[in-house]
Design brief:
Number of domains: 1
Structural class: alpha/beta
Strand content: 5-15%
Distance between the termini: 29 Å
CATH topology: D-Maltodextrin-Binding Protein, domain 2
Order of helices and strands: HEHEHEHEH
Number of strands: 4
């Protein structure tokens, strides 16, 4: 649904959604270096952080949900904080190489990201 609403306008919403099935096998997570982002509340005050995510994917949906539910307003807009990644593995590599402060990843990369020293 989220992808259809986000991307369908450009194609003039070419189809009709009659049912939605969630086939997720694991959760996406925002993993950050603790010394950069101590909490979600602190995240609200850090529009200069850099976050790796896969555009037009559930990763982007997760950040929109954080924007709404936790009032992280800059996640609702584009900007320098957004670092495009080509999938979860690429986002994880950007985090490992400290090219970003946070990354939106999904399993099994969530587990791998949380094993990096200083992440949460």
């Amino acid at each position: 649904m989220d992808a259809y609403l986000a991307l369908g306008k450009a194609a003039q919403f070419p189809g009709t959604i009659v049912s939605v099935i969630d086939e997720s096998k694991g959760g996406d997570a925002l993993v950050c270096y603790r010394d950069m982002v101590a909490s979600i509340d602190e995240l609200k005050t850090l529009p200069s952080i850099r976050v790796a995510l896969t555009p037009d994917s559930p990763s982007e949906h997760l950040l929109r949900a954080l924007a709404v539910h936790f009032d992280v307003s800059f996640f609702q807009q584009g900007g320098q904080w957004k670092v495009p990644a080509n999938g979860s593995d690429d986002a994880l590599n950007k985090l490992k190489n400290k090219q970003v402060d946070c990354a939106v990843v999904w399993e099994p990369d969530v587990t791998k990201a949380l094993q990096l020293v200083g992440t949460h």
